[in-house]
Amino acid sequence: MSVADIYSWLEDNVVAEAVRGTPYLYPTLETIHIIGIALLAGPAAAFDLRLLGFGRRLLSVTVAADYLLPLARIGFAVAAVTGIAMFLPGANLIADRASAPWKLGLLIIAGLNIALFHRRMYRNVAGWDLDRPPPGTARLAAVVSLASWSGVTLAGRLLAYT
Ligand code: HEM
């Protein structure tokens, strides 16, 4: 079975049929995808800015994480579910676009960056929670996060063109 066969099989499943055959479902999914992106990218960027030192006298990193990161996780889940639903009906066509590997690769980089941040830098947060500049590694994670989510957004938009 080739990769193209897998995409063709994805295009024939019940969700793909429903997205193809239901008027206005695709633009509705696109709209919800964008709401999910806002819920992901907004709080993630606010947390990244706090990691870069903005507002460090006003707000602790742990409070910022507790408020912002659950919202970002919900946003990612919404974007992922709607993204997969939009991918299925045109799997062969979409996977073939030049921007597709960029979007997937940047999603993987963003995910690895989150895992590394929580396993390494965030463990020592007590030392720089409030009123202290975050360490260089945490600031680097913030820059990678801002760049990778911006890149995923750009690659997502480009999916419609190339
Ligand atoms: C996690 C799984 C995801 C999948 C499978 C996915 C898949 C898709 C698909 C199939 C499209 C429609 C492309 C077209 O119009 O032909 C799309 C659009 C888009 N995606 Fe995603 N996506 C995902 C997550 C994300 C995330 C996390 C972001 C941003 C942080 C994002 C940003 C965008 C943008 C900006 C668009 C264009 C929306 C528009 O102009 O209507 N996607 N995505």
TrEMBL record:
The chain crosses the membrane at residues 32-55, 67-88, 100-117. Keywords: Membrane, Transmembrane, Transmembrane helix. This is DUF2214 domain-containing protein. It comes from Nocardioides oleivorans.
